[in-house]
Amino acid sequence: MPEVLFDRKEQINEIAQNLFRTNGYAATSMRDLAKEVGIEPASLYSHVKSKEALLQKICFRIADEFFDALQKILKKELSAQEKLSKAINAHVSVILNNLDATTVFFHEWKHLSKPSLSEFKSLRNKYEKQFRSIIESGIESGEFDDVDAHVSIKLLFAMMNSIYEWYNPKGKLKQKDIVENIVETFIYGVVSSEN
Amino acid sequence: MPEVLFDRKEQINEIAQNLFRTNGYAATSMRDLAKEVGIEPASLYSHVKSKEALLQKICFRIADEFFDALQKILKKELSAQEKLSKAINAHVSVILNNLDATTVFFHEWKHLSKPSLSEFKSLRNKYEKQFRSIIESGIESGEFDDVDAHVSIKLLFAMMNSIYEWYNPKGKLKQKDIVENIVETFIYGVVSSEN
DNA sequence: CCTACCGATCGGTAGG
DNA sequence: CCTACCGATCGGTAGG
What angle do CA A122, A124, A125 make, to 5 degrees? Predict the structure, then answer.
């Protein structure tokens, strides 16, 4: 009888995501990880090349997820406003479906070392540029005010990428509610339309 | 002749802020710090009780600065909209005037240990509550839409507290520009008023 | 502010 | 996947 009840490698990755999120990458030791997994520290190295390899895997997998989600939306023929709403929804989905991993992605990438680090940064810039193009085309078409797109995209990312700080998966708020709040705030603001 | 050309303790604090920001608290060793300061590692302990004492000092000093800035505004008799603008300006000022320290404040507080940690959290909650009260009174008076104040304040904090990630002190953007962008985005949104 | 040093812990390897 | 272990580095102290 096959005893592949679970994939140890995957288990290690998931526990690492959780520990890196909770305690930070630098403050998490391979011994902490081994203990949570339930094996001896040295045994981790049968499944994992190094501590940093764990971090790399998290960071680049999440980068892929963000890209894949965005590409599908960029292809569509939509107004800038609709495209932006859908892109926000897609981005927030990736976050909510990968809370541990995205938190590590946002916080711990600076601990990547040389070749990975610059690759990571360039992926991030590329993604931001693609996202920003939605805002820029909205400005061009007159749908949006003539805002500073470089600053606006930073503010939008800030709202989306800080969700992990306050979102409670067991709370009443659903993904739809969060997306609506961000879209409403970013696109229309909080001021009463009667004023 | 007095040789107090500078305060060593203050110098240590400032370099610690910078290192904690750049490399993170856990990944910064007292030896790194000593090297930057230009003394032997053991000599740090003539000026500093422990590594964590350095972190505590940063976190609680910044908490104080945020509180002081906000109290002055809460006292004033202003519309919710004006009060909110001024509070945003005050909060952003603290950040821009303390970029290293506020970055550490936002990122590294989780490395505080037991009694400090809960004190820190309760200060944060208290500050958020005070800030949120501005939005709540704006909703009550009809100045603002009937938004979810708990979510709105998280989105507003996200925009303000992520500034350190992209702000370049040597760039063209002035504090006034950043505040305007945040106020405009949060209060009015990016959508063209003609639509 | 320094020399000398402590016990603890780190990421990782050898060899089975 | 384990036992046994490596050299490096950690925060911090004693004593001057």
Answer: 65
Contacts with A54 (C-beta within 8 Å, 6 or more apart), sequence order: A12, A13, A16, A20, A48
Contact indicator for B22, B14 with CB cutoff of 8 Å: no
Q: What is the mean pLDDT of chain A?
A: 94
Q: Which of A24, A157, A185 sits opposite B186 (nearest CB)?
A: A185
Spatial separation of the C-alpha atoms in residues B33 and B23, rounded to whole Å: 11
Instruction: Find out whether A107 and A24 touch, Cβ atoms under 8 Å.
Output: yes
pLDDT at B110: 98
Rounded to a whole number, what is the distance in Å from the CA of A7 to chain B's nearest CA?
Answer: 31
Tokens of A53: 């390899």
Q: Which residues have CB under 8 Å from A138's CB, separation 6+?
A: A79, A80, A81, A84, A144, B190
Its sign, for the CA torsion B88, B91, B96, B99, is negative
Cβ neighbours, 10 Å, residue A54: 25
In this predicted structure, the answer to whether residue A5 has a pLDDT above a threshold of 90 is: no
Classify burial at A71, counting beta carbons within 10 Å of its beta carbon; exposed 0-12, middle 13-18, buried 19 or more.
exposed
> pLDDT tens digits for A22-35?
999 999 999 999 99
Residues linked to residue B144 through DSSP beta bridges, in sequence order: A191
User: Rounded to whole angstroms, how far apart are CA atoms A42 and A156?
Assistant: 43
pLDDT tens per residue, range A64-99: 999 999 999 999 999 999 999 999 999 999 999 999
Closest CB to A189 among B173, B187, B192 = B187
pTM: 0.95
